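During the no-cost extension, the postdoctoral fellow (Dr. R.K.) reprocessed legacy sequence entries with the updated structure-token encoder. One reprocessed record is reproduced below for audit purposes.
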Amino acid sequence: MDIRVKKTLGLIVLTRLPLTQIQAGNNQNPVAVISAGVAIKGYRSESFSLQSPRTNNIKPMSGRNVIPLFYGGLLTKPFWPCRERDSMINDYMIYVTIAITITAIPGPAVVLTIKNSMRYGYKIAILNILGNFMAMVILATLSAVGLGAIILASSSLFSALKVLGCIYLVYLGIKVWRTPHTDKNIQPQSKRRQTRALLSVFKEGFGVGISNPKAIAFFTALFPQFIDPARSFIPQFLILILTIEGISFLVLSSYALLSAVASPYLSQKKPMTFFNKLTGAAFIAFGLALIYED
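Re-encoded structure tokens follow.
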């Protein structure tokens, strides 16, 4: 079969398409010519053009039927999927770096995890982490479906959420400040009271997470940078949310483990009392920061 090819800046792609898909009929396979800087649909651009070897008629076609790529007339392996894969890996590594940085910086969730781990032990602190995990999933989902943008667009609504978050954190700070040293472990007399106590730890983690409206702003700004609108949304969202939540769980678990190890050295009355007051003051400061920070 005599197939002539036309070079455009050295890039040539052969295609196998039905004869009816070109404007000028002939008994040769058409040749798709792609200029430099333009890629295939599904990778970096929307379409390219088919050109008959005997005519100048051009018709836009999708890139799903593209087969081996030539560069300078030499047959090589298609390079655009590799480029796309490398780009996706680079973007994902950037996202992972951002997630690690954000979750590792001490904030209300970290302080609460340290407090619960030192008071109750590592295993109980996991409930606090799971509560925070659920809150972040809810906020991330709200941001992904567009409700986050609606909340951010309403300054009065966003301010109201910040006030509520401030009230909760200040309340939690006062509660921790006044916590007696004797409540080291959750060992109530009945299973019902034990369940309520464990649920209280979970609710604290959930409350600290859900009371931070700035998380909505963070997710609303972050996700669009790493979601490709040309691809299916749900798989991309699941990868992003599971990644950041998985990293958050590992980071908070590390804080909890280190705190549990250090707990015996702070189990005396004076060190623990000082720690409770320091932790309570930190929660109060976090709450006030929600109001006064821009």
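The two ends are 69 Å apart (CA to CA). The CA atoms of residues 100 and 247 lie 6 Å apart. The remaining legacy entries will be reprocessed before the final report is submitted.
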